[in-house]
Each structure stands twice: as C-alpha cells, then as structure tokens.
Specification:
Elements: H1 2-44, H2 56-62
Length: 63
C-alpha cells in the first residue's frame, strides 16, 4: 500500500516536470518570437506577417 502510494506520487512528479518543461519552452518560444519581431521592425523596418502565435495546446502537440 505504501509502495503504491509512492509510485503514484513519483509518477505525478514526473508528469509535472514534463509539463513544467513544456511551459518553459512555450514561454521561451513566445518571448523569443516577439523579441525578434520587434528587432526586425526597429532595425530593418520589416513587419512580419500577421500570423497568430501558437497556443499552448498547439505547441504541446508539436513536441
């Protein structure tokens, strides 16, 4: 009984870590993409096409 509870807790921790990594990657992707769009606009007067950034669910499905 105690071992089973430990396994469940360990599995939850692994799942949260995986999800946490995906959240971090998503934030990195969105911040970096926005930053590059700003740099391109300021330095090169380049306006990126009006594509909507990926939602978190779409991003996770790509991984």
């Amino acid at each position: 009984m105690v071992e089973e509870g430990f396994k469940v807790r360990k599995a939850r921790i692994k799942y949260v870590r995986k999800l946490g990594n995906k959240v971090f990657l998503f934030l990195y992707y969105t911040v970096l993409d926005s930053a590059w769009n700003l740099v391109n606009h300021l330095f090169f007067n380049f306006v990126s096409p009006g594509r909507k950034p990926l939602s978190f669910d779409s991003f996770v499905r790509l991984l």
